[in-house]
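REQUEST FORM: STRUCTURE PREDICTION
Request ID: SP-0412
Submitted by: Lab K.M.
Chain count: 1
Length (residues): 482
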Amino acid sequence: MAKQVALDEKGYRKFGMRDSLAYAAGDLGCNMSFALKGTMALFWTQVMGMGLWYSLLLVVVQVWDAINDPLIGSLIDADKHTYKRNKFLQYIWVGSIGLIVGGACCFLPFPSAPVWAKAIIFIAGYVIWDAFYTVANVPYGSLLSLISNDPADRASLSAWRSIGSMVGNMAPMVILPFLIYNEDKSLNGPMVFVAALVMGALGFLCFQFMIKNTEIRVDTEITCNEEQPKFNVIEAMKNFVHNRPAVGATIAAMGMFIGMQGAATAVSVTFQIYFQNPKISGLVSMFAMIPIVVFTPLARKMVTKYGKKELSIVGAIASIIGGLGMFVITPDNIGLDLVCYIVCQLVYSLGLGIYSTVSWAMMGDAIDYNEWKTGKREEGVVYSLHSFFRKLAQGVGPAVALLIMNALGYVNNAIDPETGSEMIDVTLLSWDVAVNLRTLVAVLYMVAAVMQFVGLALVYNLDKKTLATMNEELAARKAVEE
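STATUS: Completed
RESULT:
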């Protein structure tokens, strides 16, 4: 006899661990595709030999991001078609199929191709991947506000999303360095391509698990009629700009991703030439995840007691302290310096862990804030603009970091005689360059921590008391409408 499913007062399946695991699987699927982005700079500079051209191309493709994210978000909001389950889940399903091969398109290994052909391969591959990633990721982020409107439930979903993200980043981070680096510490291009294909397939399976086990409990369906005003994307974007919680959470997220993605290339090269062991970079990064693992089970209770904004500010301060400690460098003693680096990264990650476990719940609250102030939810536009600026940090951050790295001596001006491309041989880089890159890592982490503090403490305005008032007024409005 089948087990009886417990239902809430509205007839939906009661919120529980199944919802949290399903939502975590969604970000695990996203990160199966996204995890290799940190390797992209190394692939296109060290394997494909694009050098400074890569920095320029990376900025160029952000123009596509500027069009892609808000466009898809507005299309989702304007879509009033009735789907069997939910329109967000339908879009995620479509995006998950494209991501099976989308990530691999960014790592097509043709190092002997002329520079113009490499530029076309990179732009086309990135556009294909980014389109499918946005189709899956924008509605996925919007789903949090529809699974439950209970603040504790949202905190749980956000915390479990962080776990999904952490596992999705950590597993490739630890395993891939042992597979994609050659014995001479150089990158193996074909293996990166194969890894991207495998990760795309794994991501697809994660998305299917999420879709099958997601329950939508917040009714936001709108009945279309002739009197209803048409969706206005320009007005929706103006609403986003005036949405302080959305703007504050976006500034903080941009800071977080500048630290995670902008510094990723500098960190990888630092382990190649400063610590002289690129294969342990994943293990060190995994060790830094310990504070996130420890804090995640406590997130729901602590949010209920202290509030999301209040906890996140404490986290940002911890990250600033850890970032300051990373400036302590002892280049005459690499062993001691590695210990110092690991300890400071632990402190930094503690702050990042506190914020990351509630960051998505804060965006869910920002979507509610938009409805509170304007009467319109506009999940797609609010989240897609947040996603756009986050991805801008993910793209421009590494590009700017790479330009700084080149100014510090990362490019050694070795030329491939067959293609004329500017190659990078890390074995030729000097110790002074290694120390400069080690310092750059500290600078990037510090900038990220300060941005998180500004966004959370000075801009985001939904403290525990204001959030309670907002939820009460929204509940009262819906009660009147019913």
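NOTES: The two ends are 37 Å apart (CA to CA).
Reviewed by: T.R.
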